[in-house]
Amino acid sequence: MVSPNINQEKPSVLVRGLEKIIILPKVVMKKVLCICKMSKEIAQDDPRKVIHSLKVGLAISLVSLFYYYQPLYENFGLSAMWAVMTVVVVFEYTVGATLGKGLNRTMATLAAGALGVGAHYLASLSGETGEPILIGFFVFLQAAIASFIRFFPKVKTRYDYGMLIFILTFSLISVSGFRDDEVVKMAHKRLSTIFLGGSACVMISIFVCPVWAGEELHYSIAQKLETLGDFLEAFVGEYFKTTKEEESKEKNSFLEGYKSILNAKSSEESLANFARWEPGHGKFKFRHPWSQYLKIGALSRQCAYRMEALKEQLNSDIKGLTEIRGTIQELCTEMCLESSMALKQLSLSIKTMTKKSSHDTHIANSKAAVKSLNSLLQSSLWKETDLLSVIPAVTVASLLIDVVGCTDEITDSVNVLATMINFDTLDDEKKTKEVSQSPTCECVKPNPMIENSHVVIITEDSMCDKCNKV
């Protein structure tokens, strides 16, 4: 009775196997098309990634000449592989990351090579019996000390890779020198090939379509402020149902933008670390205040956390009475829109590195709205209302007040950054100051863009060269 069941199962297994073999080409083709589509999206999203890939290929091709060109191979031999390995390990997407890794690797190799040769020389003085003991002790000592130093916060941030290379190079030279008397020659070849490989990476990274970590941090911070402003503008329309259905679909993406800010701390710190390695370029001079960008980024995350709570209020089933929301609608709308415009003006100010006074006006308006809202919440209007129906609207109002406070702190930090970097003053503001401070006469046409241009204050008698009037 068992054998018929077995005979019935075998064909089904074979059939399933044949079906998988038949559809295998289609599955492979589907995955290939998926990879091609993903590659196209990445290339279109940031063409610099394609250029970076070509730069890495160019660097490895140039360094490989140490193997292909016979005279170079005769000088370096198999040590030329360290140049290729250096390019593979050191070449990074940004100039700062490449410079940091390159300098770490070069300096660590130089220091470890010198100490390794010295350790080999001291060990050789103790004779054949004591030499391996001393070499082993030196290797243990440097590995233990260097590994402990890696736990120091500043070392971990900027020199961790260099400490790893130091341990590796010292151990290789010390141990290899025990079996090879030409330890100095070996250390020289290793240092030379690493220097050549690192130099190729740095030169190509700087002079061929460079991607500066400082610029990436600069514009990413500005983009985060713009994202926060877009959220506030979209939120007020969604919460008070003032946005049209067509606009609502477009602004839904703005309500999700804050999520990219919440987890940006590690990337900002990495970019700031890499930016410190970079030389001065363009408007980013040497010793640029990158730490101030991190402060602005931290304040942006604090603001984004409030926005996450506001987003949850949109998704909540309990939103309170419509009448209560209508009571605070005008003031909350003013707070949102003024804060949104202030954040967008701050973003534009950072992008263009120009000073603007308009964001201060928006902050002042939002603060005035906050005072009015506090007075409204403390009035006797709410005493006759059910507490449970008031809580959702008051929660939103409280969060918006916190957002205004965060926006004010961001404004102060951006103003500090503008002072430290000496942002340029806009031409319109310069002209306004010049006209407002200089005396005018009848022959000078008033500027319609300047308020109260008809008011003239003459502090002392002066003669106009054009009309010969005082």
Automatic annotation (TrEMBL):
It is found in: Membrane. The chain crosses the membrane at residues 50-70, 76-95, 107-127, 133-152, 159-179, 191-214. The keyword Transmembrane helix applies. GO terms for biological process: malate transport; monoatomic ion transmembrane transport. Keywords: Ion channel, Ion transport, Membrane, Transmembrane, Transmembrane helix, Transport. It is a multi-pass membrane protein. Its main location: membrane. GO terms for cellular component: membrane. It holds the Pfam family ALMT. The keyword Membrane applies. Belongs to the aromatic acid exporter (TC 2.A.85) family. This is Aluminum-activated malate transporter 2-like. It comes from Vicia faba. The lineage of its organism: Eukaryota, Viridiplantae, Streptophyta, Embryophyta, Tracheophyta.
